[in-house]
What we know:
Layout: H1 4-9, E1 15-17, H2 26-34, E2 40-42, H3 43-46, H4 49-62, E3 68-73, H5 82-91, E4 96-101, H6 108-113, E5 117-122, H7 125-134, E6 138-142, H8 157-167, E7 172-175, H9 181-189, E8 195-197, H10 199-202, H11 211-219, E9 225-228, E10 236-239, H12 242-254, H13 264-267, H14 270-276, H15 300-322
Parallel strand pairs: 1-8, 2-3, 3-4, 4-5, 5-6, 6-7, 7-8
Antiparallel strand pairs: 9-10
This protein binds flavin mononucleotide.
Amino acid sequence: METKITQLLDIEHPIIQGGMHYVGFAELAAAVSNAGGLGIITALTQGTPAKLEREIVKCKTLTNKPFGVNLTFLPSLDPPDYAGLVDVIIKQDVKVVETAGNNPQKWLPKLQENNIKVIHKCTSVRHALKAQEIGCDAVSVDGFECGGHPGEDDIPNFILLPRAADELTIPFVASGGMADGRSLVAALAFGAEGINLGTRFIATQEAPVHDNVKEALLAATELDTKLVMRPLRNTERVLSNAAAERLLEKEAALGENIKFQDIVPEVAGVYPKVMQEGQVDAGVWSCGMVAGLINDLPTVKGLIDKIMQQAELIIADRLSAAS
Ligand SMILES: Cc1cc2nc3c(=O)[nH]c(=O)nc-3n(C[C@H](O)[C@H](O)[C@H](O)COP(=O)(O)O)c2cc1C
């Protein structure tokens, strides 16, 4: 299937694995790229330029296909060495950068002068238009159902994607709630050029996370996520667990006065404990409503092949029969 995204990124299938903290390591990124999609290493999980470089080099030993790096720009008192991370991405000839969080404008000229395509992840049409205006090559439009940070507008993809299609001239991929061939065909129908998946890729054989995390996703339904940190205007969709309940109780009790310090036990340093040690109740961790559509643990290639086969079947049979 050829779309503007497969052409832009030089990939076979219009399927991207979004950056995921403590999930987006070389093993997963390479598996996705080897299967014809675009795998993405998450830079902030590595933390330092030297560690990111090691992970990129490792990924290159596992695949000779294009892969990307996610750079998430967060407000921080002690920000990571973004300039150093960008230098390593350029030095290692990475082809694609997925940016997220704050405006990536500062880094665009340097990345693009070095032939790196930049996809910015946005949760609203106005941010997508801003990304287009500053010169991003594409955007990833993340609906309210997504795992991670859906923003504060709460617009689900049935509205957000056609709104994006009406406004944007650069290509975009649909993100949030994407699970299978039905998701891909629907995304194409809405005007997207492909799909970006997060949570679905965690429940795969190659995802380098503890089996407890995969089991938790298999057990979860679409009812099993919670929105936390809304009073801090840093809303995150996470899997329902004891830590999420505790955090929500604190939010209810403290109201507008809540501070980051109040929720440190639920949010700080959680990801290695959850993803690597399998302590799924150690704190809150991102998970999309798409968990309700996850019932198996395929290989990455099995998942991507099935998405493509199902999409092609829907287009050839169901849609052509309706026309
Ligand atoms: C466990 C987890 C960690 C994530 N970490 C990041 C991250 O560090 N940076 C980022 O830009 N997006 C992150 N995301 C968001 C994903 O890249 C993607 O946009 C989102 O998962 C799409 O929604 P879906 O889970 O419904 O597929 C994360 C998502 C999950 C589930």
